[in-house]
Amino acid sequence: MIAFAMPLLLQALPAAEALPPPQSTCDAPVYMVVEGRTLDRARLLAYGKAIADSEVYQKLGGYYVTMPQPLEVFEGDLPQGYVNLTVRFPCIENARAFWNSKVYQEQILPIRQNPSAGDYTVSIYAEAPLREDMVGRVGDARFIADFADHGVPQVERPVVGPAAQGEQP
Questions:
Q1: Burial 95-113 (b: 16+ CB within 10 A, else e)
Q2: Burial of 73 per CB tally in 10 Å (0-12, 13-18, 19+)
Q3: Under 8 Å between Cβ of 66 and 83
Q4: Which residues pair with 118 in a beta bridge?
Q5: Could you tell me what percent of the chain has a pLDDT over 90?
Q6: Is residue 101 helix, strand or coil?
Q7: When comparing pLDDT for 5 and 90, which is higher?
Q8: pLDDT of res. 106
Q9: Region for 61 from its dihedrals, namely left if φ exceeds 0, alpha if ψ lies in -120 to 50, beta otherwise
Q10: Alpha helices in the chain (DSSP H)
């Protein structure tokens, strides 16, 4: 009976007393992996400084998980200047919000691309679920803070994400 009456009760509430929106569901961490060869170290350092100075990672809950150069290479040969950098975000939406942010697309990315500081691929990977035998033995692999309401201005035409392909988010 309560489930039936709830929609009627909600309709009776004045707009000012409407229920708040549900909590963020930005709780499926993803990893942005940037890998490739650096051709101009000075430009890449300027690019990294611009990202840090913008604080866009902080606003979106992004942080570096790895350093860009390997400690050791167990198999194969890496080209001179090869980097692999991983950034963790609380969800795919925040990784997209970083990539589509005005500050990144209009001010930061051109530092790396015009002229090119290197040949890179940038891809997103889902975080693997924690194996049952590891529960209680490692961190719980989740974000405690809510980064959903980040307030980072976006470019008018998204470069990545559903809206970039004309889909509804």
A1: bbbbbbbebbbeebbebbe
A2: exposed
A3: no
A4: 38
A5: 58
A6: strand
A7: 90
A8: 96
A9: left
A10: 2-12, 41-54, 56-60, 92-99, 102, 109-113
In angstroms, rounded to a whole number, what is the distance separating the alpha carbons of residues 31 and 124? Answer: 5
Span 146-164, pLDDT tens digits: 777 677 888 888 888 887 8
Query: Does 139 have pLDDT greater than 80?
Result: no
Other CB atoms within 10 A of residue 30 CB:
20
What count of Cα atoms within 13 Å lies in the side-chain half-sphere of residue 149?
4
CA atoms within 13 A on the CB side of 122: 12
All residues at 6 or more sequence positions from 112 whose CB lies less than 8 Å from its CB, including other chains: 43, 44, 47, 118
Each residue of 7-16: pLDDT tens digit?
Answer: 333 344 444 4
Query: What is the C-alpha separation between 98 and 86, in angstroms, rounded?
Result: 14
pLDDT at 21 over 60: no
> How far, in Å, are 38, 78, 105, 111, 130 from residue 137 at the CA level?
37, 33, 40, 42, 10
